[in-house]
Amino acid sequence: MKVTVLAVGKVKEAFYREALSEYKKRLGRYCKMEITEVADEKTDENASAVQIEQIKEKGVNIAHVTLHVGLGTFRPVKVDDVEKHHMHSEFYVVEEDQAKLINDTKKAGKKVIAVGTTSCRTLESATDENGILQAKSGWTEIFIYPGYHFKMIDGLITNFHLPESTLLMLVSALAGKEHIMAAYEEAVKERYRFFSFGDAMLIL
Fold first, then answer.
1. Which of 19, 120, 127, 170 maximizes the CB count within 10 A of its CB?
2. Strand, coil or helix: what is 198?
3. CA separation for the pair 98, 134 (Å, rounded)
4. How far is CA 162 from CA 8, 75, 92, 102, 198, in A?
5. How confident is the prediction along the chain (204 residues), in pLDDT tens digits per residue?
6. What end-to-end distance do the CA atoms of the chain give, in Å?
7. In what helix (H) or strand (E) does residue 18 lie, and over which residues does it extend?
8. What 8-state DSSP symbol labels residue 133?
9. Which residues contact 1 (CB under 8 A, 6 or more apart)?
10. How many CA atoms lie within 13 A of 109 on its CB side?
11. By the 8 A CB rule, do 69 and 100 touch?
12. What b/e string do you get for 150-175 counting C-beta neighbours within 10 Å, with b at 16 or more?
């Protein structure tokens, strides 16, 4: 598979801005958002308020964390040695009540599913080596790529990402490169929508 064909899903800026405006209105109906000029929060764009309530009714705990997305997330990796790729710092916040909810869920033997790569990076940054999520805030330069040992999350809901991106490496670290490439090949074949406001996949 030629990964470069994934670029066909790139969204034009005019369309993105129009979709972003509508997205803010919809999302603002059921949760608080913080918008920066770098990027919009995308962790909940795959679910509506009604779906959120349906999920809660099934006994699923829903927690909220914050990551102010930096430019490094969207900067393509251009080096052969990924360890030499520099990630920009991103500021994250994990409130005490949310950390307790997530830790209690984990202790109960339930799975922690991150909704969005922003949530994933926040949880992995704030979790210690014993697998305990810390209530804290700070800056992270976490770069997750194949070989990374996940400390907190058990699964991920995310979009289909662009080639040469750090996010494509992140999902490959979780699911395995072969599985991700097979999924992307199917997505291209079936003309799925890529990147922001596109289709989503669940990795378990």
1. 120
2. coil
3. 10
4. 9, 11, 24, 30, 12
5. 222 222 233 344 444 455 556 555 554 544 444 433 334 444 444 456 777 788 888 889 999 999 887 766 666 777 666 666 667 788 999 999 999 999 999 999 999 999 888 899 999 999 999 999 999 999 998 888 899 999 999 999 888 877 777 888 899 999 998 888 888 888 888 888 777 667 778 888
6. 23
7. helix 13-27
8. B
9. 181, 184, 185, 188
10. 0
11. no
12. bbbbebbbbbbbbeebbbbbbbbbbb
Give CA separation, 185 vs 10, 180, 182, in Å: 16, 9, 5
Burial label for 183, CB within 10 Å (0-12, 13-18, 19+), is middle
For residue 30, give the amino acid letter. Y
User: How far is 13 from 98, CA to CA, in rounded Å?
Assistant: 34
* Angstrom distance (rounded) from CA 103 to CA 133: 6
Residue type at 190 in one-letter notation: E
Residues 6+ apart with CB under 8 A from 147: 173
> Residue 45's closest CA among 156, 136, 126, 159?
159
- Taking alpha carbons only, the member of 63, 69, 61 closest to residue 92 is 69
Q: Which H/E stretch holds residue 126?
A: helix 117-126
Q: What secondary structure letter does DSSP report for 131?
A: S
